Structures are given as structure tokens and as C-alpha cells.
Amino acid sequence: MKYSNAWHLRDIILLTLIAIFFGVIYWIIGPLYNVLTVALTPVGLGPGANDIVMGIWVMAGPLSGYVFKKVGSATLGEFLGSVVEMFLGGQWGASTMISGVVQGVASELGFTFTGYKRYDWFSLNLSVLTTTIVTFGWDMIRNGYSKYHIGLLIALFIIRLISTWIFSGVLVKAIVNLLDRTHLMQTQTR
Amino acid sequence: MATISVNHLSFSYPTEDGQKPLTLADISATFPNGGFSLLTGPSGSGKSTLMKIISGLYPKFGGLITAGEVRLNDTKISDIPETDRGQLVAMMFQNPNQQFAMDTVERELIFALENQCVAPADMMARVDRALDYVEISQLRHRQLNSLSGGEKQKVALAVIIAMQADTILLDEPFASVDPVARQLLLAKLSRLQHEEHKTIIISDHDLEDYDAYIDHLFVLNDTGDSLVLLNDKAAQQKMATFKRQDTSNQQLLLPKKTDEPIISANNLKLTAGTSTLLTQPKIDFFQHHITLLTGANGTGKSTLLLAISKLHQYNGSLLLNQKEIAKIRPNRLYQQVALVFQDADQQFLNVTVSEELALSLKNSQAPAYFKDRIPKFLEKLQLTQLQDQVVYTLSGGQKKKLQILEMLIMATPVLLFDEPFTGLDFSSLQAVMTIMKQVAKDCQQTMIIVSHQLFGLDALVDYHVTLENKQLQYVEGLA
Amino acid sequence: MNPSLKFLLAVLIALEISFTNTWTVNLGLAVIGLLVILSSRPSLKRLVLLFFVPLIPAVALAVAILLQSNAGIHFALVLFTRIYAYVFVGSAATLTTSVADLVMSLEQNAHIPSKFAYGFLGAFNLLPKIVSEVNVIRAAGNMRGQALHIWSPQLYFKAILASLDWSENLAEAMTSHGFSEDAPRTYFKQIRIRWWDWLIVIGSLALLQVALFGLHLQ
Fold it and tell me: Where residue B214 sits, what CATH number does that domain have?
């Protein structure tokens, strides 16, 4: 299969639709983040909710990277998703677009490091790792994680890594496997 | 002014393994300049494909021309630059929901004019005229998402008029358009043809209402290898035989006093956008009976099924076994009621035919009944050989048969069908109806069926409800 | 104000306050954001939601600092006010600009290729359909005895299949309405950047530096 790096109108619409679908699924299926946050806040672990659901937040990135196999697709997917989310009135306001870029670049790196040549378990896992590290770095700054005791910091990192692995790794792979078996992507994206 | 000629055209959607099955094979025809042509043929014959080739969308968006060409006057379609094409050919699509880029009616018209590099100073006059022509000036600032199917197609025609396209293609444009809007659209198209000498081609499998308007009738056969222009006599004959199959002497009973209601509507009101579809003081649907629901396109039949399935909001009361549907939790409701969607793709959850069947059998409410019978049903439906196939690559008719079977297997007490017989050939239709009848009886199901196609339904259904003038009513005749 | 510059300013402000720790400045920005929001006459429901939505993460972050670090109440206050500044500054931009206007400005002023601008816009306008499609997918699952959760691959699989279908329909329709990638277009509504747009951006950022620097010296 030949994949071109040019973006056509149809690809852009498809990427945006996927990003919006993922956002809508997150919002419809339940205020998971809010419930977890409220439950964890009294013991001072509220931010942990952020790490627990992080994998769901960033799923659109690796999925776009994997589906489109173009340079910049993971970044663009996350970024477009964040613009939509900001207009829908998300909880992070103007910083959403910054986070979108950070998360997008973070998941893109996994594919960059493999030269956009490998689209398999390895590159996906690499993407999970880069996503966890980069987004964690951003939360050290934005959400003041850098001030936490080292024990909590490590715990949060591990939680985030597991969440990202489950959703952006295992679940994305399962979705892509279903898609691959239909052969619809190959015949339709050019 | 444009004559469209199709010369020995063959077209294929190449498959994954490099094969090139032909959707259209060596077809030729000339659509006359300034004429109003109707292109008909069974569903799945490739009408839509041909329309998209003429409009220049294919092969850009899919498929491959393997032989032949389409010419507009004397120029090959593929040689016309995309930027000039809008003035030559424009298309109205079957699905009114995904044909606009902008949010409001006015902005969509302006978007199209901007694409054509019309000078900004000239735009308003063209927008005014186009909206006025289709009589939708009052919709000018409305959100496109809030419009009904008929209104959206009027907007689509207004866009085409504003673009001043010479040839107007309409691909099954009336599928979700109510009768009043349909008449208006046809009258406007006729005026465009006579006063402005536009060339018009409509594709439709339904021939109703066209005889007053069309000059030429083209027929594409079911295998896509013959496209012929009928002479006047043959065309007249075809139109006449299409007139609703004569079901006038078939009589059904009205519900009996002793029938048990299972779904009851009280002061039910259904709306789509800002228009009211249904205001119903009272009506019941009865347990263990099969009820047919008919009415014109776009009048709200599908919406009623969606409301019963809790997928469309309603006002007033809609009860299932004395419980308000809006208040039943989804996972409970769907053990009682299931909907066979109009679009079969929406039903499928897995990849292959056998996976789909396995899921239904696993969660069926009558697994023992179906376990032994599935092979026989598959054989009757001619699906036995297809079990490893990806469901999304089945033909339209095969998808419908699989979809109906897998929903029957669930054995849900109430089963709603939204146009289940679309795209089925005669023998498939017979097989599907026999199986539906048998399962309904053996599993004591209640069915409500929305269908345009009435042929042979007198053997399947018990009662008939019509939707007319925003009211549901039981009637005795099938027609 | 010019939509592109408005969003640029909002994002730059958000970026800057992510790296600074002056809660009074955050509070000031939130108040200014709120004033802009109020000038757009939002509904009471929206206003209430606007105060409530950031409350959960803001409280969570502040409490976590108090209980799980030695950074103290000052830093907790910084994080709390930062979230409100993010949301109010962001909403000041989104509530006073339509997506269509932003897209047109990005096309004309920021010279984003029109295929990105209108591709995004066309997809965004399908939002109501996307919401109902997610409901249909979940209902289709329940009707087959399979509840679809946020961790169910089928849920996303079906969403992507719908996206594939719709993206093709929409791209074809836009092309049929004369849209051509990389082709020149005219603009009915000219969106310009005026000198005062730049003045607002540069002036606001300068004021922000003065405020941050001044308060830092104290």
C-alpha cells in the first residue's frame, strides 16, 4: 500500500469527524472524570483522576497516526479534537488547544522515532511511552505536579502509563484490528 | 446547453486482491440537450455510480474507469478543470444530511459562489434570486441542521440554481422528501428546463409522479451492462406497470376489541426541526400481531419507529406495556423492543457474517429455537456460502437479509422494521417474508413494519395503519 | 476583534500563565475574561455552568497541593485561579466568535489552506448528527444484548465506519458545490486585520508582562 503525505479534503473531514466522535463518546458516556475527581479530592488525590482517564483523552492521536499513516496525522488529529472541545466548553478553556498540540506531538513522536515506516505493536507502544512522558512533563508545569512528594509523583506517572497503555495501546490496537479486517480503510483512503 | 454522451463506459471498484469486478460494463447512451431524463433501474444496478461519473466525482473519489468515456458536448468530463465544472454540472445527493459545508442556508449559497470566484458584489443578487426561485426566502438565516429532509433538498436545488449550473443531476433525491416538497421540486425543475433550457437527469428506482414531467426514460439493468433509452410507447408502458401494484382488492381486518395493546400513544406529538410530523390523540399497536405502517416519504414513519426505540424525542405519552418509553432505561427497553434500521450498516457490530450470527445467537431470547434452524434459514436466504465474508462488502440485498435474520434471532418481544424489503429481488422477498411470518408466530412476537413495497404483504401482515395529514389510522385496504 | 488574533491572544495568555505563579494576575485575567463574556449576554444557565465546570479540577488541584506537597497555600491559590483564567479567557474567545467566522479569518488572515478551513468546518457542522449517531451505535449494541462501554472497541469501530461514509459524502458534496483544493476563491465577507487588532494583542501582552514583573518585584 502506498501512502501519500498530502492531505486531501476528504482526509481532513475524516480526521475531524473521528476526533469529534471520540470527544462526543467521552462526554456522552459519562462524566467519568468529574465523578473520579470528586471522589478522590477529599484525600488530595483529585489530580489522579486526570491520570486515570488520560488514556481516553489522548486516544485520537495514536489512532489517527495509525489509521492515516501520514506525517503529522497524530498531531493534527489531537489538535483538531482540542479545538472542537474548546468550542464545546471543555474544562480546561484556552489551555485546551495547547494541551492538544502537546498531546498530539507526544503521540506523534512514537511514529517519528520509527521513521513513519513501522505501524505495528512496537511503534504503538513507543507512542504510548512518548505520550505518557511528554504529557506528564506538561502537567508538571501546568497543573503543578512538580510540587508533589516524589512518591505521589511516581504513582501518578505509573497510573498514567497504565491508562495510556490500556486505551491508546491495547484498545487502539483492537479498533485498528477490526478496521483492518474490513479492508475498508485501504480502499478508501488514498 | 449540454449533450451528455456515455460511450462504451466500463467502471469498476477494484478490490483488495487486485480484482476489478465491473459495476458498469460497456454501456452507451446519449442524454439529450435540454431534456428532462429519468434514469431508472433496480437498486444496486449502478445508477448512482453513473451519476457520479457524469458529474466528475468519480473516479476522483473512488473506483476506476476501465474503458470508454463520458463527454459533455465534445469534451471529456475528466478534461474539464474542476474549477469550471460547477457551472457545467451540479449534483443533488440522495442523503440530504451530508451535503452542506456551512451552518446556515445563506452561508452555504455564498460558499458555493465563492468557490466559483463570483465577484462579491454580485453574490447577493444571485442568492436572492435562487432562494426566491425555490420559494425558501424565509429559510435564509436558518441553521441547516434544523431543516426537514424536503427543506434541505430545496436548499440543495437553490445552491445549484445560484451556481447557474447548465446540467442538473439528481441522485435519488426524494427518498426523505415529503409529497408537497417533492411536487414543488419537480415543478421547479420543469420550469428550469423549459425557461432556462437546463438539461436535467434524475435517477430513481421509483417512477411514481414522473410521467407529467419527463421527456426520456433510460433503464439500466440489474447487472449494469445495458443502458437503453425506451421509446415513447415502451416508456408509457413501464410507467403504467409501475403504478402501485394492484393491491386494491386485498382486504385486511380492523383490530378486534379483544386485542391486547402493547404500545399505546396518547396525545403524542413528533417534530423534526421546527415542523410537526404527527399529532395523535390516541392509537394502540397490538400484541402478537403484525402491523403494516404506510405513508408518503418524509411524513414521519421512521421517526415514529425511532421514538418507540427511544432514539427520537417526543411530546405527550408513548407507553410500552403501560410504561412510559422515555423513562425506561436503555438496556431494559432494548430487551423488549428492537429496531431493524433502514440503513443495514447501522445494525452490524462485528466484521464477518458468521460473527454477526454468533453474537445474535449468544444473546438470543430463544437460543434453542434458532440453534437448529439457522442453517435452514441461511440456505433459504442464500447466505450459507457467505459466512466468512465481511458484512460491509455484501451487496445491498444480502446485507438486508442478514440484518433481518440476525434481528429475528434476538427474538425480542417487539420488533420494528424500517423499510426491510429495499433492494430484495423477488425470491429473496418471498423467503424473507416466510421466515418473518414463521418466527413471529413461533416466538410470539409483535411486529410493526414500515414499507413502501406492498407486494405480497397481505400474506404477512394482520393490520394496516396509514400516516396521513399528521394522523395515524387503521384501515381495511392494503393499497 | 479579528478572530484569528483573538484566539492567538487567548492561547498566548494561557501559555504564559502556565509558566508563571502570580495568582493575582490569574484572578485579574479571569475577571477581564468574565467581563468580555458578560458583554456577549450569555444565558444564565451558561453562566452558571461556566462557574461550575472549572470548579471540579480547580478544587482538586488546590486540595492536592495542600495535602500532598509542601508548596503551601499560595501555590494552591495559583493553581485554582489558573484554571479559572484558562476557562474564562478561552470562553471569552469562543463565546464571542462563531466557528464559521474563525475559519474564514484563518483562511483569509492566517492563510491556512482552504481545504483545512472548510474541511474542519464541514465536519464540525455535523456535530448534532454525530451525537445522535453515538446514541444509535449504543442502542444497536443493546438491541443485540451487547452493552457498549468506553472501553469497547466496537463503539469506536462503528464511529470510524460512520466517519468514513460521511467524509466521502461531504467531500463529494463540497466538490459538487464548486470547492476545489488549492484553487483561488473570492470572499463575500472580507475579514481584515486592522491596526487596533494588533494594538490590542501587543498592548494586552505588554500589560501582562508589566503586571507579572511588577508583582514579582514586590
Answer: 3.40.50.300
